[in-house]
């Protein structure tokens, strides 16, 4: 009964147009003050202790690194490198867009930054080459979502924060440790590469079917020159992933190093950004970080309410009594997350749904790392479908196309993403093979 009241109140507040963060906070306060005896001091204490996690510092640092790179000409150099590699194939510029999005996502961890940085450069070039606007928009809108999956994904950091410290037991009754940021980052690499390949294949197939333009084949000298020009940006991938895997950095320390490195290459190596531009970038990063941290703070309160009302445990007991197995639960999870993506931002979905679904998943025997990647892929799909798919709105601003037209444009790639979601859901090794091979988990 309490679960129905809590979610009914949350939904009612969101339907008024109130921001997710404020809706979460008001839901918690209203329920606690009217239906429980929880003292106000515990709420205030939870607001402060909820964000006293070292891992949370990774979020503003990765956002800052992404802002430096987005304004520092890195995307333009990566597009040039990708074009020399695949530009002579069918749909060459479209394939270059997929490759560029994958590379840029792997150094920023932000879906929106990837769409803006890559899309604003390559979409005009595609139109100039004679590609249909819908084709280019479909490629960039969906490929930009790779930022949610590739490390350093901010959403994977949020999943780790949302589930950290939870006391959960497996089907055998033994305690199960939560997924660390490092494990999730490494686990996201192979699914990210697989989805990049599938999106590229969809792009190539449609370009071949409709005979879209191809570029002249680049010489090895041109490829080497383009690689040397963008290598400083690519080295950030090595810095973050290599540093975490080797144990030199924690994920938070890697985020801080990434921010400093991005500043140095943008201002002093590539010199695309002048020192007077730095304060503006810092203000933009601080604004984005404050927004996310405010959502996290209220989501922590919401998780506290869920735990105090024993809602995850009640759900687990109900599913067990109904005879739900892993397959039925995972299908239900996908449906819930995709439905939530119709009206909620991915960050809010992760912070609200992960603490509820995670204990049930572990109780049924789902690996925590696999479950984190499953949620990330769902969030990728949610970024690309209406009515609140954030990538659609960002791409709409770049292409000047309406949301309805963009929705039609992304369907071939969106269907590919849905097929990949089913594969990730029922083939755990796609997520777990690399961390296990590197000895990061049993």
TrEMBL record:
Pfam families: DctM. It comes from the Bacteria. Keywords: Cell inner membrane, Cell membrane, Membrane, Transmembrane, Transmembrane helix, Transport. Residues 7-430 form the TRAP C4-dicarboxylate transport system permease DctM subunit domain. It is found in: Cell inner membrane. The chain crosses the membrane at residues 56-75, 95-123, 135-161, 181-205, 226-248, 254-270, 282-305, 317-340, 347-366, 410-434. InterPro entries: DctM, TRAP_DctM. It is a multi-pass membrane protein. The complex comprises the extracytoplasmic solute receptor protein and the two transmembrane proteins. Belongs to the TRAP transporter large permease family. Part of the tripartite ATP-independent periplasmic (TRAP) transport system. This is TRAP transporter large permease protein. It comes from Chromobacterium indicum.
